[in-house]
Specification:
alpha/beta, DNA-binding, D-Maltodextrin-Binding Protein, domain 2, Arc Repressor Mutant, subunit A, 11 helices, WH_DNA-bd_sf, DNA-binding transcription factor activity, about 40% helix, about 300 residues, elongated, WH-like_DNA-bd_sf
Length: about 300
Amino acid sequence: MEKTPARSKSTLSLVQLRALEAVVRTGSFSAAAKEIGVSQPSISNHVQSLESRFKTRLLAKSGYSVSATPALEGLLPRIRAVLALVGDLETELTHQRTLASGELRIGYSTYQLAIPKISTFMSSHPDISIEARALATQDILHLFEDGEIDIGFVTGREIPSGLDGELLVKTRIVIAAPHDHPLAKKATVSWDEVASLHLLQREGSSGTRKIFEAAATIAGIRPHTVLALGSWGSIATLIRSGVGVGIAMEAEITDRDGCVAIQIDDPSLVANHYVVWQKDMSKVAAVEAFRKSLHDL
């Protein structure tokens, strides 16, 4: 008779995974212990137990900072997905309902496109706690890597590697100028005309700016950016003040901005704005509910 292999006495536990993920996210054993509410030696023991069992270094120390080794880096999205799913199960068992409470961390780069979607979701799920942060696209992607965000509204040519998502809008990248600007009555402007303008742009980590400057490089133009700002609202205010003209997605310009959109004669200046999430988090209840709410009228 064939014997069933004996089960290992040391099984992988959720407590160990929580400890490991917290150390990576907070960057230290003491911060992880404080967050979870246990002693620092307890956190250290959980990590050492995992490393000993699998004979693999999972954490690397550099001075007072701790980070994931390459062996752990690729596993972190799945570890975080497991912990999030367990959180869903605990919520369901406690409240005996599918999606009663919880939290959703959202990063958005363009409030005109993100806030209506967030508002729709909040109306349908009032018990979900929302933390929404305005950031540039590249900064949002860094938060995904660190496990500090669940949903992102980002601008780019395509959905970033490692993420799933849906296209929210496809739009032109344009010059935004006051109504009384000499170029305001033109349907399009050339790259040579763009080269002579004083430009107001988003910060260097902005998806819109990356697309614009890549197209300018191909056209052989070096844009004259006089000021980089962290939001479209700030850019629109300075445009109205006569400081310069802005670079923006046409979809983010509204009537109250006091600007007119002028297209640049370059068909490559098209941006896609996506809603994205980690692939392994797609079945987490709050993330799945947000995905479905994108199609609500």
